[in-house]
Amino acid sequence: MVEEIIIAGFGGQGVMIMGQLLSYAGMHEGKNVSWIPSYGPEMRGGTANCSVVISDEQIGSPIVAEPTTAIVMNRPSLDRFEPAVRPGGLLIYNSSLIDRAPERTDIRVIAVPANELALELGSDKVANMVVLGAYLKATGAVSEQAVRDCLSEVLPARRRELIPLNVKALARGAGLVS
Amino acid sequence: MVEEIIIAGFGGQGVMIMGQLLSYAGMHEGKNVSWIPSYGPEMRGGTANCSVVISDEQIGSPIVAEPTTAIVMNRPSLDRFEPAVRPGGLLIYNSSLIDRAPERTDIRVIAVPANELALELGSDKVANMVVLGAYLKATGAVSEQAVRDCLSEVLPARRRELIPLNVKALARGAGLVS
Amino acid sequence: MAGRKLFKGNEAVAEAAVRAGCRYFFGYPITPQNEIPEYMSRRLPEVGGAFVQAESEVAAINMVYGAAGTGARVMTSSSSPGISLKQEGISYIAGADLPCLIVNMVRGGPGLGGIAPAQSDYFQATRGGGHGDYHLIVYAPASVQEMVDLTLGAYDVAERYRMPVMILGDGVLGQMMEPVSFPDQMAPDRPAPEWATRGARDGRTPRLINSIYLKPEELYKHNLDMAERFEKASANEVRYEEVLADDAELLLVAYGTTSRVCRAAIEKLRERGIKAGLFRPITVSPFPYDALSKRAKSAKAVLTVEMSMGQLVDDVKIAVAGAAPVHFFGTTGGVIPKASDIAEYAAGIVGEEVR
Amino acid sequence: MAGRKLFKGNEAVAEAAVRAGCRYFFGYPITPQNEIPEYMSRRLPEVGGAFVQAESEVAAINMVYGAAGTGARVMTSSSSPGISLKQEGISYIAGADLPCLIVNMVRGGPGLGGIAPAQSDYFQATRGGGHGDYHLIVYAPASVQEMVDLTLGAYDVAERYRMPVMILGDGVLGQMMEPVSFPDQMAPDRPAPEWATRGARDGRTPRLINSIYLKPEELYKHNLDMAERFEKASANEVRYEEVLADDAELLLVAYGTTSRVCRAAIEKLRERGIKAGLFRPITVSPFPYDALSKRAKSAKAVLTVEMSMGQLVDDVKIAVAGAAPVHFFGTTGGVIPKASDIAEYAAGIVGEEVR
Amino acid sequence: MKKVVVNEAKCKGCGVCVNFCPKSALAMADRINSKGYHPAELANEAACISCGICGRVCPDAVIEVFKP
Amino acid sequence: MKKVVVNEAKCKGCGVCVNFCPKSALAMADRINSKGYHPAELANEAACISCGICGRVCPDAVIEVFKP
Amino acid sequence: MKQVYSVPKSLRPVSTHYCPGCTHGIIHKLVAETIDELGVRDRAIGVASVGCSVFSYDYFDCDFQQAAHGRAPAVATGIRRTVPDAVVFTYQGDGDLASIGTAEIVHAAMRSENITVVFVNNAIYGMTGGQMAPTTMVGQRTTTSPEGRIKGLAGEPIRVSEMLATIPGATYVARVSTTSPAHIAKAKRAIKKAFEVQLAGGGFSLVECLSTCPTNWGMSPVEAMEWVDKNMIPYYPLGEFRTPEGGQTNG
Amino acid sequence: MKQVYSVPKSLRPVSTHYCPGCTHGIIHKLVAETIDELGVRDRAIGVASVGCSVFSYDYFDCDFQQAAHGRAPAVATGIRRTVPDAVVFTYQGDGDLASIGTAEIVHAAMRSENITVVFVNNAIYGMTGGQMAPTTMVGQRTTTSPEGRIKGLAGEPIRVSEMLATIPGATYVARVSTTSPAHIAKAKRAIKKAFEVQLAGGGFSLVECLSTCPTNWGMSPVEAMEWVDKNMIPYYPLGEFRTPEGGQTNG
Ligand SMILES: Cc1ncc(C[n+]2csc(CCOP(=O)(O)OP(=O)(O)O)c2C)c(N)n1
Ligand SMILES: Cc1ncc(C[n+]2csc(CCOP(=O)(O)OP(=O)(O)O)c2C)c(N)n1
Ligand code: SF4
Ligand code: SF4
Ligand code: SF4
Ligand code: SF4
Ligand code: SF4
Ligand code: SF4
Ligand SMILES: [Mg+2]
Ligand SMILES: [Mg+2]
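^ Those are the sequences you sent over. The predicted structure of the assembly is below.
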């Protein structure tokens, strides 16, 4: 199995951490992984994305041009990455912030009202985890347990107390996907 | 005719000006000329030399490796350039300052007691002109008149009053050569 | 080797340098390699070394000169504009026969350019952006683990040939995370080399670190000596990798990040029935001319792929020497070529020349 | 053209620049080119221009950037270590599409090296010692008169292609005196170019001189545009000279000072009955690949001669592309090769390969 | 027209204007602009003395101030 | 031994020692050394007070001074 | 209604890329107001440096050149010498001016180049993500001084204005702050005076503006302003260090 | 007979390439005497710069590195950080230190690198044949200021010691002359004190030595010394500009 994922959104939406979590979890499951960030010029705000490859085999190219999955957290990212998804691939979008529906019909599309759901759980800071939960459930790229185990590795020390909330958010997202 | 000359000595002995005079004179006679200086690291003192080519044809290489004439004003220059002179060529040396006779037998050798002769004329500053006079007479590379005409072009303004003395020195040197 | 850890390329190269004995880092911030100085500012004090943020890249490389001259294992890192500023200093370090480690995480140029990954400093790295006849040993890793492995050996190589070693990465290699393993042990302490200037103690004759030779004959001799050492490095240190090259009719040549995209392109080409293979120089200086020359003889066409307007292609042409047509596919300015575009272009060549 | 005058190469290039319209000089002293700034410090005030001795080569090249950005005809000169320091700035000037004139009177390197003439900055000049995908137009004159002639046209070329022009000389060319003639007239005044930043007067939109393109696609586009302009220069501006090349079985390739020694060597070879000829690139960037490639086809062997450990030889190999064996004869560190040594070496090759 | 006109779309919600308003006439709005920031707004126009301070301190040149 | 020993071969004939000798005990010699310079010499040893100044001012470390 | 504060015309009506509350924006406005008030927009040539203000050319509505890191004073010199009636100013950060560009600023001052330098001292390298600058306070944590700047290793911060004030050619040198309405008003006066010195042909003028970097300092914009007042101003006293009249009002 | 003046041991018994009467030689002797007296020859590491003193490594009998033009303080920093008990000094001309190397000297002072800088100010570029230096006097003719340095174009000369004395890390800064026995004696004390500061771990020390260049000034050695006294000392006052004790004795 090779999963090639692009995760994109505003700076501050936690897209880099989503990718790192996936990578750590993949590595702990004995898979080959790679994670590549891409930033705009802004120090704060602006858009950012990361590419993650999770593979049972050695990874040829860590560069993701045609993702098997694109996770988009805001409108500009949807506009940019929807066309790139590989036919038959997956597109997950944050329907809380994105005001249009995807147009592709040759791919699977999952809408996650991430900010609303996260706020329901207590903080919209975990919107990214809700989306990640949905992704994990939809693809099984890595196990939710592996991701949970990696939370403490990835979150900065000052946010460790939020781990239970993150775990809840993952589950909430997973619950969305049948 | 192609004359390829190397003129070498201590900094301060006026070897650069000898070369420049030859070049100007050659140019004014309608010949092709080139002049290349070579300095040591010292600002004052140290050794220096220049290469001059005077030719009726277009000059191929201005670099002189095997001079037709070497003019050496001090001992280190004799040691360095005596072996380089082309067989059949000419070596002129300042016997006032050089304590050994040249060894080559396949070339023409002219000894010029330049400092003594120059002092006789009034200043050892024109030792170089005595040697140059000898060279002109020996080779006819350019005419003595042409060199005289160029003195004012080459001498720095503050030394223009020395032109008559220089002219005398040229003649004195010429007088040495039969 | 301990277990695998997920490391950013920049931090991995820094940690690898420390394990290889690097104790001194002199550098100046520039994207996309800031994690290297940042990591070193935390790490070196832990191992009894020193981190100095220099006032500029010019100062940094000259601090490297001074520290390398004392026999220390020392490092600097930067990205394209900063590496340009270091050219005089690199020329001095090479001219003074000093070993050291220089990392360039290349970004798009020229000028201020951009901060996205590029390979447009290939000429500068392999041809000497500085003045004079000198060479660096330049490694072009293609993964974080390879960056670690090459860095671990870099000082030994630099000291063996007494010339700087450069790791030529790019924004992707510096920023990406991949699992890596490091050796458990630090490189053992070694005595100061016999040319190091650390004070003329115990009555030994004073030593000199120098690159000036005012007598042309002496500079000539020194340069010949440098060239001889580089010749030796060419004989012993050249490294490359071949992928499906044995039967390749179309030989792709690429290094670093681009070589990984080429792997994907080759897969696509093979799926389409085109016998494509990859020749990947790992040392881009000394360049594996002989190996590529040999390999090119069995290919019908060669395709150089790089993130630049065409620089590696010169070395490929020199190696191939007319044995096969040399094609070029490049992207520049921070654009990473797509495997599908490479495959498409390659298929076009095959249409023309291989079939 | 007025009558011939005996001029030092350095002063001749300076005067030629003034005749070509140069009014601003920014530089820093370094041997063997000091006569250029010294001449300019006297000459430019006479013609209403300005001479600034900068605090360093780095500052000088950035002053050139600023002045060139206002559309002025501007110049700097230096020698090897100083040119290394200018690499970042040159990359910026190229990246900002600015015309200017840069003179490098090459001395022996690397490092502080020596002050004698050398050709060991060929790679730096032709491959871009700075970072990123850019090119300079580089002239390699072989006489003082040619230095004058090329300089007289340099600004027109630089402005046509909007890229810096470099005169690649050496210590011999800078220091030697030869008779030269200059045009009587100064280049006519020209209006400021339409991209120059001189203040957004009369309501025009503000302009920007810039080399940053943070979006990779935009930098890519800009670099393609630069490459296209260099392509055009390659089509229109390539210059070379051939001497006795028509029937040459042994083709010498050399530029600048070395090419003149090669003339003497060829004479010696012809005297010995060996059909030797010379191919002399005048533009070393763009390099006359096509012309040399064509010429090499009728030769049995090619011999590159240069005052370096082998740099021009790369371009010769690329051009010859296996059509004939490419040999190399080099001296470095300030040693000028002897015509007799070249002839001897060449005769050896002929023994092996031509006969 | 209000005494203080905030170009909401450009506001980065930094709060500097609110901090320096001598009359506490400004506040951050609950709504979010297209950039994702809560813009400043003139919450208490009556209190505003049109001193212009908010305009002068705003780093993003977002505020214009008028005097009736 | 003289009070002032000049290493003639190294002397560059600059005249600095002569200038600063408080007793005018030094002078430039007529002879020329192998470098082509007229070296300094202790022309008037009796006048010399062994003050050491000439040694200290000589840029070429050519002079050593002794006191009887 | 009468407009009592309006946005300066020499500033383009675009959004900047600066972080929320970053005082680079305030300084931009002051420079633009000065250009407006002196009526020199059509002969102003700005020189942008490398740092967070690299894109300042997009914000000012006048001719611009973008200079290599630290070299803005050299670029400005090139412009100055070729366009005699231009109004030339550089806009430089503290990494740019006080670190890599030290030689260029010192020598522009020495030559008394008739240019105006707007020097933004935020005690950090903003654009590259918060590394230590020469102006970083002792004890201040940055990404390359993780334990805080250590005096024994990295020295004490450099006071650029005081240093440049020793140079005869530095005609006008002042340090201002941007952290309160009163400071901003003074800053405006200093910047305007600096441009006026240039317009009068007086030579080199420089205004050092203490500025915030909320993002890399890890503070809210208002906290960051308070931090300047509390920590920076005591070490970096405000005032005029040299004036054309010879006066000095710092302390 | 008792020897009252002997040539310092840390100086090799070779002929230098300096021009007759050039005071570089005097300064070499003072540095060598200091090394002798402090007994640190075997842990001294000198850094030669680019200028007439480039070959100083041939004259001092201790370990040396030759640094790129202007970068001696950076090279010294590299040495300093790697050999803790070394005695590290640079020997730099005014072109080297005050022009191209401005950033390096300022920042070595800022970091208070524990090194000693011997700064030879002869108001000219000696080695390259007499071009204008930043320290060249207004009106002084050089090969690049053929009409004399013009204040309006090239500014007034830079006073390095005064400038560096504003930097907290510059522990000891003094200016001395080499143009009379009395000046030389004071110069010796300053150089020794500078080394002593380093030996005590006190940080950055620098001694600016006014020096002659008879060759490029076109004067006899003695005339050149008089020219320093008459023209340079009034502009470049002698004295201590910073001492570890905080004192200052210039004026
Ligand atoms: C030669 C070179 N070195 C380094 C950099 C990277 N760089 C970009 S901005 C910057 C620092 C900017 O800091 P500062 O000048 O203080 O401006 P701020 O962002 O804080 O406003 C650096 C080091 C570069 N672009 N070029
Ligand atoms: C990068 C570089 N630029 C320029 C030079 C040429 N250069 C050699 S010495 C020198 C000036 C030396 O002057 P100074 O430092 O005052 O020393 P002095 O000779 O007067 O003692 C210069 C510019 C060089 N070697 N390297
Ligand atoms: S104008 Fe003055 S009072 Fe009114 S909102 Fe702004 S700051 Fe407050
Ligand atoms: S100061 Fe400006 S940007 Fe900040 S909140 Fe107020 S209006 Fe918005
Ligand atoms: S020791 Fe004193 S008195 Fe004697 S010669 Fe020397 S300077 Fe003159
Ligand atoms: S000072 Fe020294 S070099 Fe000069 S004349 Fe006297 S002894 Fe000779
Ligand atoms: S990083 Fe700092 S200096 Fe840069 S824009 Fe953000 S707050 Fe301002
Ligand atoms: S050129 Fe000047 S500084 Fe250099 S050695 Fe000669 S006199 Fe001394
Ligand atoms: Mg800053
Ligand atoms: Mg000097």
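Chain H touches chain F through 31 residues (CB under 8 Å). The domain at 24-250 of chain H is CATH 3.40.50.970 (Rossmann fold).

Shout if you want it in another format.
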